[in-house]
Amino acid sequence: MEMTGGEAVVAALETIGVRHVFGIVSVHNLPIYDAIARRGTITPIAVRHEQAAAHAADGYARATGELGVVIASTGPGTTNTMTGLFEASFASSPVMLVTGQIDSRYLGKAKGFLHEAEHQRLMLSSLCRRVDTVRRTEDIGRAIITVAEDIRAGRPQPGAVEIPIDQQYRRTEVAVPGPRVDRGYAPDADAIAKVADALSAATRPVLWAGGGVVGSGAGPALLALAEHLSAPVVTTIEGRGSIPEDHPLCLGALTTSPPIEDIVSNADVLLAVGTRFQGNSTRNWSLSFGGTLAHLDADPAVIGRSYPTALPVVGDARIGLELLLRAVGQGSADPDHAEKARSAAATARVDARAQLGEDHCQIMDAVRRHTPRESVIVRDATVPAYLWGDRLLPILQARTSMRPSSAAIGPGLPLALGAAVGSGHPVVLIAGDGGFMLHVGELATAVQHEVPVVICLFNDRGYGVLRGIQVRQFDGRTTGVDLATPDFPALAASMGVQATRVASPAEFESHFRDAVASGRPALLDVDLLSLSPLRFPRPAGRG
After folding, report:
1. How many distinct structural domains can be found in the chain?
2. Same domain, yes or no, for 332 and 362?
3. What stretches of 359-465 adopt beta strand conformation (E)?
4. End-to-end CA distance of the chain
5. What is the extent of the structural domain holding 209?
6. By C-alpha distance, which of 114, 116, 64 is closest to 93?
7. What are the pLDDT digits (tens) for 391-411?
8. Are residues 340 and 371 in the same domain?
9. Which DSSP letter does residue 239 get?
10. 378 pairs with which residues across the strands?
11. pTM of the prediction?
12. What CATH number corresponds to the domain at position 483?
């Protein structure tokens, strides 16, 4: 079919089911945006910074399981996306960047053409598993489809396509191939049989669920296997929602709490699924697994990397768990095992709540009480997120828990925007004032596109996490952590966001309930200094 290169991009995105794209219009992507406008099948979300576009596409992908798409300009536009692509890579999130390139006749000649980035492909390759540079308009559709398929293969990773601007304008015959149906990678039958035998004979089985369980849609199979074996389930932070946290077999993401650590270390068989055993879930790999470790993951490189694995299984988490469910016997679990695990989880939660103080416990409970079960809760890198948002605030459904997996500061608002656009439900953001300023301009994006994000902005006038570390490690001296902060309600209101300041749990609950119900962008400026103080734990890194 005859079409321009810009139309070919949109036709290919339509073929793979893309509904939204995030980005900023530029002279090196105008034909793509023009085709989007004329065809009317894809909704563009106009952000205020390309880094936010990449984070928003990431949030969209995590909330929906669909491909998140960024459209950016060559050169400065693409360099701006790199932090977002880094986060997506860290989080194993399916994000694709479609970027322009300079005119083909100048490409690679370093003549100083507008927005020229001679080594852009090399730069992108440092974060993207596959980067294609299109040389002919005829190849655009094939490149988009091929990179999209690679992004989803095995452990999802970002990918990119760069298209010279002359090839975007050029009109010619372009074939857009249909995508292949990816049925996932089925594990080896013998490997499944060995794990099934071990689980059937286990008296103290434990399941460990990572982000790969959520990403592959394996939650129902995980829950069914847990119930069949009467096996308690612990999750990583990224694995939250793989099993509802109000289920009696769910121990939550408190893997480093001593009561939960005892359950894990005393398991005779531990099946880990879709996880890299990140440092924050294992106390930097000091957590011990005393029994037989079985590990199911789509990425063979992560199996055995952090812990010796007796029973490795390479394959898709959902397929692997479904095969295990059919292969395991009735199970031999000690009848008291699950009850002991439930008691340990209850003790761990009581201990963790005791660190918070009454004010933060009330605020956390109010967030859960008034947030719909299907709404995504995003936590940026901030003290309340670390102490209660990431581990204690109950997560009740898959794809409703999100945070910067790389522990980056600031992605919270654009992640929340993407999640709200993709899910169609109100999204709650827990953020700090310091990190929030990195993407404060995206308040305008929320208003322009009527995105229902409720921002709980915990304000301590600076970088509270780093302030606490400095005070402990440098004899009370602090540097660069106390910030001049704006009047956030006034700033938000100037952009059309309903906003208010709160200083108590009662005020928070009243305004939070109304904000969620409004279906509009809203901001609650929570005065942390008016609440009972939090005790931040000693960091796991240096010192």
Report:
1. 3
2. no
3. 377-379, 401-402, 427-432, 453-459
4. 63
5. 189-344
6. 64
7. 999 999 999 999 999 999 999
8. no
9. T
10. 402, 429
11. 0.96
12. 3.40.50.970
